[in-house]
Amino acid sequence: GEYSHRVTIGGGDELTRLADEFNELTGRLQTTEEVRRRFVSDASHELKTPLASIRLLTDSILQNDGMDEETVREFVTDIGNEAERLTRITEKLLTLTRMDTAPPRAVGPVDVKQVLLRVEHMLLPLAGAVNVSLHMDLIEGCTVLATEDDLYQIAFNLMENAVKYNLPGGSVFVCLQLRRGKRPGDGDWVVLRVEDTGVGIPEEDLPKIFDRFYRVDKARSRAAGGTGLGLSIVRDTVLQNGGTVEARRREPEGTCFEVCFPRWHGEEEGAE
Ligand code: ADP
Q1: What residue's CA is closest to ligand 1, atom 19?
Q2: pLDDT, tens digit, for every residue of 34-78?
Q3: Could you report the per-residue pLDDT of 79-127, keeping only the tens digit for each?
Q4: Is the beta carbon of 235 within 6 A of some atom in ligand 1?
Q5: Which residues form the HAMP domain (predicted)?
Q6: Residue 198 CB–ligand 1 contact under 6 Å
Q7: Phi, psi (5° rounding) for residue 259?
Q8: What is the pLDDT of residues 219-271, one digit of tens each?
Q9: Is the Cβ atom of 162 under 6 angstroms away from ligand 1?
């Protein structure tokens, strides 16, 4: 690669340590550069597909004089859908790049329960349309220090996926809990679990689903209007707000996503 300036030094402990540090750093730079290049190439590919469909559809209309009105309507509708898809992809790409560069937004105490109730309200029409029921098991006192819009985005993406990748008649369980830290001195954690009874994610795909553009079933994601960016936005946003997120298979079926944030106890009790 471009960063091939490896340093080898024998002897002196201090020098060896410095050389190791230098080599480790160049290694990391190379990875960042690769990740960036990969991202641009993946993004271009994702944008090219709908653009190619739009070209194809317009060409068919323009080159076929005798096309009946109904077919024209159908093609134009498809063009509209592809344009909508492009909009969704670019919006999400902007969200991701903005996270890299934008100054940190307002952070404050947020009641997670209130955020989840807003997300539930937004998702009810979609859930109703595919006959999936939402079960909310929420408690008071789950306050975290975070950006409210970020929490909304995290919960929305997870709950929307739980509906999208479900089966007719299936369920989504959203639950809030408080958990004690494992070691003495660890504070409490606010734990948000989003479980579904849906199609599930194969064990071997689980480590990859937070990667940008990764989709287990491309056709299904596409049909559901997916971009493969939702979970990478979830991961970045969770980390930015000091939390953790993981996904595992749910027994007997479906998927379970768990997000943990340090609980905020309020100024008067001496928060972190
Ligand atoms: P998409 O826009 O495709 O939904 P995401 O980044 O949100 O992208 O999710 C990545 C992929 O992970 C999805 O395409 C889907 O294959 C899988 N996935 C995400 N959530 C679930 C879920 N609750 N159940 C099953 N598969 C899921």
Answers
A1: 161
A2: 778 888 888 888 899 899 999 999 999 999 988 999 999 999 999
A3: 999 999 999 999 888 888 887 777 767 899 999 999 999 999 999 999 9
A4: no
A5: 1-34
A6: yes
A7: -115, 130
A8: 888 787 788 999 999 999 999 999 999 999 999 999 999 999 999 988 755 44
A9: yes
How many whole angstroms from its chain centre is CA 272? 28
Check if 221 has its Cβ closer than 6 Å to any atom of ligand 1: yes
Instruction: State whether the beta carbon of 132 lies less than 6 angstroms from ligand 1.
Output: no
Ligand 1 centroid – CA 221 distance (Å): 7
Burial of 44 (0-12, 13-18, 19+ CB in 10 A): exposed
For atom 23 of ligand 1, the residue with the nearest CA is 162
Tokens matching residue 219: 């056709």
Residues 156-215: tens digit of each pLDDT = 999 999 999 999 999 999 999 999 887 777 789 999 999 999 999 999 999 999 998 899
